[in-house]
Amino acid sequence: MVRGVSLDLPLNRLVHYFPTSVVAVSDLASGNYVIYGRVLAGARNHGRRGEVVSHRALHEGWVLRAVPGPQVPPEIVDREVPATVPGCVHTDLLAAGLIPDPYLDDNESGLAWIGRTDWVYETTFAWQPGDDDRVDLVCVGLDTVATVTLNGTEVGRTENMHRGHRFAVTSLLRPGRNTLTVRFDSAYRYAEAHRDRLGDRPNAYPEPFNFIRKTACNFGWDWGPTVVTAGIWQEIGLHGWSTARLAAVRPVVTVAGDSGRVELHVEVERAAAAPVTVRATVADAAGEVTIPAGERTAVLTLTVRDPERWWPRGYGDQPLYDLVVTLCAEDGRALDVWSRRIGFRSVRLDTAPDAHGSAFALHVNDVPVFVRGVNWIPDDAFPNRVTRQRLAERFDQAVGANVNLLRVWGGRPVRVGGLLRAGRLPRPAGAAGLPLRLRRVPGGGAVPQ
Question: Phi then psi for 288, rounded to 5 degrees?
């Protein structure tokens, strides 16, 4: 028996694909989220304190061109247009006045050639060597079948829109002018080739969305247009670092009685074989652990006395605590820093048998929550147009509708997941304490593994 009510009411469209668990409770205002009592967090302020890891965005000077093919309109052939990064082909062509608005009339059908065309993004940038042991090219999101080339040398290929990629490029960078090129092959051609090789699978629409790791709704859905995108859809840039960096930090947060527990699972990447120390603080707790030379992982546990509990909207307050993790060299120098705000709460889903079959009740801090939920579909077909301000408006709409749980539709890219992990979600009035129900399993079709 389901406790509460749920309406299939899209708050316009939120763009997100979230490859984790099924139920999350989140303080959207700060960008922290819990999955069955577990906080998963990314690199908020990662490497920013003292610039122990240097970050340089490569978002300027990009141009876009189509690879010639019979489907490319004459006005596009040999045409180079300015490209916005992060962005996508559709919005760049729209800004250049070369295509009509895909949202109007039947324009999406006339623009189907975009998804069947290969595209090339290119930029140049100046670079001078510094003191870093290593420099990486970090691509947070490439959509989707991409080949990355730096100064004429291929550095990597990607086939998954939902993952970020990091390439070591120290030896390829040149003092002075450098050229970075990203070629995107047709998502249609890639997906159809896998479909033909593996055999078709059942799905909800006559499109090959289940044969590519890409936003499913790009291929059309009952609420949205068919706009098969390509492009550098999230941040891209250079990261410089020395000795070691924090490759992953996963805090598992639990609370029982008057004791809060933060179990930090840390993974480092190394540029040198030397011991490093992980130091962490939260509330009144502090601790450290040394990772010996040659090893990459460690677990550090912090205990917080009498933490205030985090509650969903309508059930209490949402107190948050600063958690700071610092990676230090053998001489005590800070090499990398990671920080988040976390909340202490327990979360469980009760599915015990009852008189009606089985329950489906969300319990936070052992209190059953009467759910008033909506289904939140993507805010825009083009994720680069989903701004913090638009997200803030959606949260305010949810609060105004007396919603206390958002079911985030699953066939989307990771834009909001990335904002959650990076702690960059806005802080709209009244949005704190909105729980999320995040879908993990791809829907609408059978997906080959």
Answer: -150, 160
| 145-157: burial string, b at 16+ Cβ within 10 Å, e else | bbbbbbeeeebbe
Sequence-separated (6 or more) residues with CB below 8 Å from residue 352: 358, 359
Span(s) in the chain for CATH 2.60.40.10: 239-342
Domain with CATH 2.60.120.260 in the chain: 60-234
Which residue is it, tokens 């990629």?
Answer: 165
Note whether 122 and 67 are within 8 A (CB). Answer: no
- In whole angstroms, what is the distance from residue 63 CA to residue 60 CA? 9
Q: Which of 56-60, 193-197, 403-407 has the lowest mean pLDDT?
A: 403-407
pLDDT tens digits along 64-94: 999 999 999 999 999 999 999 999 999 999 9
- CATH architecture, domain 60-234: Sandwich (2.60)
Which two tokens mark 439? 């879908």
Report the CATH fold assignment for 239-342. Answer: Immunoglobulin-like (2.60.40)
Note whether 237 and 136 are within 8 A (CB): no
pLDDT per residue over 404-434, tens digit each?
888 888 766 554 544 444 444 544 323 357 7
Nearest to 21 by CA among 4, 38, 8, 7: 38
Q: Please report, in angstroms and rounded to a whole number, the separation of the first and last CA atoms in the chain.
A: 33
Residue type, 254: T
pLDDT above 60: residue 19: no
Quick one: pLDDT at residue 31? 33
